[in-house]
Write a structure and sequence with these properties.
The complex is a heterodimer of chains A (265) and B (291). Chain A is an all-alpha fold. Chain A is built from eleven helices and no strands. In chain A, helix 1 runs parallel beside helix 6, helix 7 packs across helix 8 and helix 7 packs parallel to helix 11. The model of chain A has no long low-confidence stretch (mean pLDDT 88). Chain B has two domains: 214 residues, P-loop containing nucleotide triphosphate hydrolases (Rossmann fold, 3-Layer(aba) Sandwich), CATH 3.40.50.300; 71 residues, Alpha-Beta Plaits (2-Layer Sandwich). Chain B is built from ten helices and 14 strands. In chain B, helix 4 packs antiparallel against helix 5. Chain B starts with a strand and ends with a helix. Classes of the chains: A mainly alpha (265), B alpha/beta (291). The interface between A and B is medium-sized, with 20 and 28 residues.
Chain lengths: 265, 291
């Protein structure tokens, strides 16, 4: 509990900065939406006229982007990437930092097992991603408020947030796993960043090209694709199960390796 | 059963040797100096005892319990000061010491106050703003604040000024008199001599010798250098225990091992300009163990 509380106290500043980033993003996105509406332009038209399959990437073929809920779904695609980056930096940093800063020597000399260290760090990571998710939810509802959203629109936002959380959770655990199992944990952030970028590009490519759709199974962004979830108003049970299993396997591997590894000092 | 027991403890980092087949016993209530040049495997041994790293072979117990299986349990009674201290830079000293104390199921506030007073440590400063010596003091306080039965120190006095070193040794002596066992690694022989009851010597990952301080001093070489007004004949120092004899006009130097009275008598018979009798370098002592 002491590790959890001490670490969490240290995270407030970073959380505040990330929250400000989310506010800035939502304010600028919704002012764009406001601009389209005031100019009487059809948002649907703008997105459907995008070249190639890019319109599919934004879900222009399946969403009513004119509605505030539909437009928010596009924002949610970006929010998932932003919060995913926060989560992977959090997951990798919280484990790797003890080794790169060499404070692990202090921690391991205390009467605490490695399992407890790992669990405390995981809980700190989970707490921060939940907080950031709730902040994002509140900011999202507040930023669509001036556009007369109906109860369905607010309901849609609430319905989409677990998909963003799922992306956060997956990347938190990817970051944590890399840091826990790598011989040089300081590279964990960079490597998990590369994984996120590759997943995002792959997800976008599958949407845009419309080919090799089986590759969807390799990217969490397709498992929790906000535009399909919004359009179908449903989560895919298969995707949820696969993602949960992947998270469980990564956590088990982290625990196994972290318990038995030599810390580099 | 010793407080610390290692049996054939071995650690390789890939193909690189850390320590090899180290069997050692630290007795209850003693101060054992663990001495060797840099890279001899001192820190490796301590890190194995603390399960920061795991052995390639052999085993170790502390308080009769396996260091890996019962790690968290035995660490309740261990205080550790690493050779280089790295703590959370963003914390204030007081908060860091409270955090450190929070791992133990006891009230450590009295000890924190007492120890930081003794070492003149400012609890309000940020760790980031501290000098190396002051960080070391933070390390000493965090290592002792829970009143541990076993104190492990890895080259503890680097960065402390002479006055603080004196205070620190005084503190260790006091702790030892209160029944604490101390395992003290160093590459400075004089440091170990000041305080230890026994000395274990390691070189290239192996235990070369372990003996009482008394024996070590008795069996130890002295380096003698003399400046004489007149040229001295070689035969004067043709004594058992003299080695590496060099004569150069009025300058004589040699290593001596044996009764100091014998050599003092010889020196007294000369007309001296100057003389020094020093401890040889640690390397020279190791040479002795390889002869």
């Amino acid at each position: 509990m002491n590790i959890y509380l001490t670490e969490l106290r240290h995270q407030w500043k970073a959380l505040a900065f990330w929250s400000l980033g989310i506010v800035a993003f939502m304010v600028s996105a919704m002012s764009k939406y406001d601009g389209y509406r005031k100019a009487g332009t059809s948002v649907n038209e703008i997105f459907r006229e995008l070249p190639g399959g890019i319109s599919a990437f934004f879900g222009a073929d399946i969403l009513d982007l004119q509605s505030v809920g539909g437009f928010f779904t596009i924002c949610a695609l970006y929010l998932a990437v932003m919060l995913g980056i926060h989560a992977l930096l959090m997951g990798s940093g919280i484990i790797a930092k003890e080794e790169t800063d060499k404070t692990i020597e202090f921690l391991v000399a205390k009467p605490v097992s490695r399992d407890r260290i790992l669990l405390a760090k995981l809980l700190v990571g989970l707490t921060t991603i939940v907080i950031l998710n709730l902040v994002t939810l509140a900011v999202s509802i507040a930023s669509v408020a001036p556009f007369d959203p109906g109860p369905t629109d607010n309901g849609d936002i609430v319905f989409l947030m677990p998909s963003v959380f799922a992306i956060q959770l997956i990347f938190l655990v990817i970051g944590l796993t890399f840091a826990a199992v790598m011989r040089q944990p300081r590279h964990a952030g960079m490597l998990s960043g590369a994984v996120l970028l590759a997943s995002f590009i792959l997800s976008a490519w599958v949407d845009i090209s419309g080919r090799l759709r089986f590759l969807r199974f390799l990217t969490p962004f397709q498992y929790f694709d906000q535009k399909s979830i919004y359009a179908n108003h449903a989560y895919s049970a298969a995707h949820v199960v696969i993602a949960a299993a992947a998270v469980a396997v990564m956590l088990a591997a982290s625990r196994f390796v972290y318990r038995g590894r030599d810390f580099s000092l | 059963m010793g407080i610390i027991e290692t049996r054939g403890l071995t650690k390789y980092y890939g193909g690189t040797r850390g320590i090899e087949d180290l069997s050692l016993s630290v007795e209850d209530g003693e101060i054992l100096g663990f001495i060797g040049p840099n890279g001899a495997g001192k820190s490796t041994t301590i890190r194995l005892l603390l399960s920061l790293i795991y052995p390639t072979g052999g085993s170790a117990t502390i308080f009769g319990k396996d260091v890996i299986r019962h790690g968290p349990e035995i660490k309740r009674d261990i205080g550790y000061l690493p050779s280089e201290v790295f703590y959370y830079d963003y914390m204030r000293v007081g908060d860091f010491l409270d955090y450190s104390a929070s791992f133990y199921r006891k009230d450590c506030s009295g000890r924190i106050k007492e120890l930081s007073g003794l070492l003149k440590l400012d609890l309000d400063k940020k760790i980031d703003d501290l000098s190396y010596g002051n960080r070391k003091k933070v390390g000493i306080v965090q290592g002792l604040l829970h009143d541990p039965k076993l104190i492990m120190l890895d080259e503890p006095t680097g960065g402390l000024d002479p006055l603080m070193q004196k205070n620190f040794y005084e503190l260790l002596r006091r702790e030892n008199q209160a029944g604490k066992t101390i395992f003290f690694s160093s590459h400075i022989l004089s440091e170990v001599q000041k305080i230890c009851h026994r000395v274990a010597i390691v070189k290239e990952g192996k235990l070369v010798n372990i003996e009482s301080m008394e024996n070590l001093i008795r069996n130890n070489y002295k380096r003698v250098e003399l400046m004489t007004r007149e040229k001295v004949g070689k035969e004067l120092f043709d004594l058992p225990g003299v080695s590496n004899l060099k004569l150069d006009d009025g300058h004589v130097s040699f290593l001596y091992k044996g009764d100091v009275n014998t050599i003092a008598g010889k020196i007294a018979s000369l007309d001296l300009v100057d003389y020094t009798v020093e401890e040889p370098e640690l390397e020279e002592i190791f040479l002795h163990y390889y002869q």
